[in-house]
Amino acid sequence: MLYIVIIFLLVSVYLYCLLGGADFGAGIIELTSRGENKKLIRKIVSESMAPIWEANHMWLIITVVILFNAFPPIYSQISISLYIPLILLLFGIILRGTAFTFRHYDAIKDSSQEVYSRFFQISSLLVPFFFGLLIGALVSGRIFVNPHSFVEGYILPWLNPFSISIGIFIVSLFAFIAAVFLIGDSTDKQMRKLFIQKAKAANLLTVISGGLVFFSSAFITDNGFAKSFFSHPFSVGLIVIATIILPFLWKVLEKGFTWRSRILVGAELLLILSAFYAVYFPTIVIINDADNLTLLNSAATGLTLTYLGWALILGSLFIFPALFYLIKVFKLGKS
Length: 335
What we know:
- There is one protein chain.
- This protein is mostly helical.
- It has one domain (2-332).
- Helices cover 79% and strands 1% of the residues.
- It is built from 14 helices and two strands.
- It has helices at 2-31, 35-49, 53-56, 58-70, 72-81, 83-105, 112-139, 150-154, 161-184, 189-221, 225-230, 233-254, 258-278, 302-332; strands at 283-285, 293-294.
- The chain has a two-stranded antiparallel sheet with strand order 1-2.
- A hairpin with a 7-residue loop joins strand 1 (283-285) and strand 2.
- Helix 1 packs antiparallel against helix 2 (35-49), helix 6 (83-105) runs antiparallel to helix 7 and helix 9 runs antiparallel to helix 10 (189-221).
- The mean pLDDT is 89.
């Protein structure tokens, strides 16, 4: 049952990055737009997100529930060592959701809409950035069980060049995913061309920031990620496949195949996440002054895993059909 729980954990993280990432990226695209295009993009973003944006956070909740119940030492260490970026991440999610709700559903349309929009846009940028900081912190090797100072224990694990570079990478990646998704949500040819341009720009930034991750690992922090990655044939192979897929993705985008492009960008994300985590699996948290925390040495008792595993299996029988129906009603019908 342990491996069933692990599969649900990894799937939840992936779906949050894909679906939640598309929503965060939409706010980033809106933030980086100017003039009349910004008003049109804001309208498309609101219409695209409004029916389903709340459902996307379900995957983050499932991830947290699995960690809390199935892998308590991992949950505990993350909550203690990384509580500052965690609080900032959660605050950003709350601020973003509140701003979007007031902007979209407020019956009175006045200057306050601009304030709501600004909060929505900025938090859409900050949340993925802090999400990236957390990912970088988990594998940076700077987490201490017994830190000698507050800075060593609660600042340096996440505030370092490697974690920052991953934060930038996640922001670029989410913007890329969002641009691809928004192409299919626009019926105006001019706007579709604009989203294609933004997707290409975000794709370029993703490649550059990905290079920055390897550079910071190899030449600044020397945490071993770059060396481990390029000595891992499976990880290298996945990135090669992701690179090969890109020309096909741009071809289907230019031809206007909405769902083919979304499937391909989803495949890109899966390959990137798999390539990254293959370097560390089953490790989740690299500890500097103690044994690393893995999905195997941090697992709960067999009975807990059995109950949780069956709860996830039975719950998925309701969640996935309901999610598909939600997407079918609000997305498939438009494309």
